[in-house]
Fold:
Amino acid sequence: MPTSKLITIERHIADQQHLHPEASGEFSRLLRDLTLAVRVIQREVRRAGLADILGLAGEENVHGEAVKKLDALSNETIIRAMRYGGHLCAMASEESEGLIQIPERAEKGAYVLLFDPLDGSSNIDVNVTIGTIFSVLHRVTPSDGTVGTMEDLLQAGYRQVAAGYALYGSSTMLVYTTGDGVDAFTYDHTLGDFFLSASGLRMPERGKYYSINEGNSINWFGGTRRFVEYLKQEDSATGRPYSLRYIGTAVADIHRTLLYGGLFLYPADRKSPNGKLRLMYEVNPLAMLIEQAGGMATDGWSRVMETQPTSLHQRVPLICGSRLDVEDALRFLADDRAERDALIQQ
Ligand code: P6P
Structure:
């Protein structure tokens, strides 16, 4: 929880490594390089308005979505910061169609990195919080210095060794887990470093917020509709009605959910039976953080990190947050399973 100690992220990473004498230090160096990339991205995000790098880069990403310049810049920054570090054998990004090769002359490491370089890019031009999301897995092919493969990337979320996000809001934060709880760091611009601001984040068992795009309600399955109506009913014994908070940047909505509890939902619906969010570099890392903070992360029916990936950019529904709130949601959404499965089998 809140900490009064003055600990930089570098010191924290070193301390955490010290707890694992068997660690080679490769993982620590990976996190250190990733932190550098976040420092560069946050600088560009902070000066976007001044540097006139807002607006479209004139490109389209793999999903046919207009790419804004900051997206492209963030993507390049992470790739440049990580590809020669010697920790990775492959990477994947929302902004890149396939596997991102580690250069031939670069040393190949034991990990793979998947990331969304700038989540919430539709909010860039209106100065609403955006973020970077990352997921780290250990390669499954032999760690023999060879390049990684799609098999190394397409692993279920429960196999992640680290996950986290950077949040470019009123302050810049870095929140991550290596499987031993969730720690949060806040950037001090005057010193140019991240300082530990909360250690061992735990979310409440139940919250008072729900977070969903009500504009999609016309497409919701019956169970989803009944659950949201349930949350809006007056019942002081169960703290209802809940309040709606929806920023439209998953990292920001999840950050609030981590701190205050409640629910974040991007459910399956009749128009998008697999939801919208991407499994590999949005849902899996966010789900690991939610679980590490004592919450639950599902696809509406089962633990989402059990999902066996079939492609880099596949979408998956996400219903996550405080344990008691998610359990309530699952009871309602059970009614939607058959209709949803019928749609995805078409
Ligand atoms: P909608 C941002 O584009 C994003 O991928 C997530 O960060 C966010 O939660 C979601 O899309 C918002 O989608 O359909 O509500 O605008």
The domain at 9-198 is CATH 3.30.540.10 (Fructose-1,6-Bisphosphatase; Chain A, domain 1). Residues 26-46 form the longest helix (21 residues).
